[in-house]
Amino acid sequence: MSTQAKPRQVKLRDVAQAAGVAVGTVSRVLNANPTVTEAVRRKVQAAIDDLGYEMDVVAQSLRGGTTKMVACAIRDFDIPQFATYIKEAERIFRENGYTLLLSSTTNQPDVEMALLRAFERRRVDGIMMTISDEGHAGVARALAEAGVPVLLIDRDHIGTLDRVTVDHFGGARAATQHLLGLGHRRIAMLVGDLKAFPSRSRVEGFRAACAAAGVAIDPGLLRERVLDQEDAFRETMALLSLPDAPTAFFVAAMDTLGGSLRALRALGREVGRDVALVAGSDSDLAELYSPGVTAIRWNLAEMGRHAATMLLERMRGEAPATSRALKLPTTLVIRQSCQAVTAGNRD
Question: Where in this chain does the record put each HTH lacI-type domain (predicted)?
Answer without folding.
Answer: 10-64
